[in-house]
């Protein structure tokens, strides 16, 4: 019987998308079936394996997506989303493999369900790209998500604060506007995929908030103040609006956490709960 750490490491070291998706699904199935031992006997790699494509660029060097609603822009948005979901597989796996020993088994139960969902999200978007005559890897992508993971590899509280409660929460903010763009372009198939992902991501952010608060209780520290301190240390201390307040509230990420970190919006640029993509 393999261990949870070894199975997680196998996913992280799978360099190609299809192999990573298959390994992630096998990990989640094996855990549910009781074929994986809850032991942490190997270390996680500093970085997950990556193939030659997509080419990874600095966020400031990413090319423009083209005219909003155009086929080129829609493919670019889907490609960016595919990359986010691909890295999200590794983020969820690394969270379990790196920090699982510090939590009860229920932590692995929940985050391995999320691993399977992230793998499913990537597969859905990749399939949609192929239907549009493209594929994951055709365009460049940026590595900012994993940089945040590397910066928080020392502390599960920091990882939970930044990855689900900042980066994934940002997905709650921007996805409604993306859905509206696909709907306006008559691309109902892509819009349906994004609606499915948005519903799942509310639960993923909620899992991050719940385990963050649980760890704060065990350390006898206040969750909102601790989160703000960690955002200041690992994310520059500011998160930018507009916010999807209703989705964040559904996930338990209330304004008590983030309102004081957001710069004030000019009145003419205030947005409703649906947010524009940045």
Structure description:
By secondary structure, this protein is mostly helical. The chain has a single domain (55-269), classed as Ferritin (Up-down Bundle). It is 62% helix and 3% strand. It contains ten helices and four strands; from the N terminus they run E-H-H-E-E-H-H-E-H-H-H-H-H-H. A two-stranded parallel ribbon has the order 1-2. Helix 2 (17-32) packs antiparallel against helix 4, helix 3 (71-99) packs antiparallel against helix 4 and helix 6 packs across helix 8 (223-234). The chain is globular. The chain starts with a strand and ends in a 20-residue tail after the last helix.
**Based on CA inertia axes, which overall geometry fits?**
globular
Helix content: 55-70%
Mean pLDDT: 92
Number-wise, the strands total: 4
* N-to-C order of helices and strands: EHHEEHHEHHHHHH
Contiguous runs where pLDDT drops below 50 for at least 5 residues: 268-278
- Physical arrangement of strands within the biggest beta sheet: 1-2
Query: Based on helices, strands and strand pairing, what is the structural class?
Result: mainly alpha
